[in-house]
């Protein structure tokens, strides 16, 4: 059976300050622990300080040699497409081809208003980006708004994982993606979504995209380590979902218990997991997650 690759979301600004850790430190620690990748989200006007995804991942890329550098997820439609292509090409170049481009079209209306992009155009702009990025990253001169543009340097197109569990995202992944990248869903939902994904991919005469899941974990115990109920309540509040529906999503307990839960996702068809860790010490949580990976 194929194994499950596990990456971790890089620490945000508050955690960096709390734990005295830089992004370069965090990326090196992840690589040394034996995990498979580091990831960073792409946010604008979300009510808290966040770093630019491309710049944050550049720091991680230049500090590591082996692991995947991933966007979880990048929102190309928030930007002029030529600028998005330039950012992606630069990150692919600086990481020596280790980029996985998680792509989304979500976020609240405030994010789109801050970027000056109509919220109703997010789907169309995302599809256009996915159609044209391969040509732009290959260095082909591509007309945008009647202006020929070819961002430099020319780089291999990274794998594209389409984020979200919505029917629209599954359709987009089947037609345009190399992967489907839902977050905070159960193994049953993964299996059901993969069945739909496979049918849609076959209808487009495409291979079935790989499945990657986004999750959250707080392993071990002791003061400051959130419980499963704490994490589930946070998910329910943030995403407007009933807590009962997400009660089993967080990874908690021992590394062995986390490995058992991750194996359920693997058995449901997932081949990658990208985990955001919670707890009083980011490095310790990464080490515990690496123990779980080793048990797989």
Automatic annotation (TrEMBL):
The keyword Magnesium does not apply. The keyword Cell division does not apply. It comes from the Bacteria. Residues 23-214 form the Luciferase-like domain. Keywords: Flavoprotein, FMN, Monooxygenase, Oxidoreductase. PANTHER family: ALKANESULFONATE MONOOXYGENASE, ALKANESULFONATE MONOOXYGENASE-RELATED. This is LLM class flavin-dependent oxidoreductase. It comes from Actinomadura sediminis.
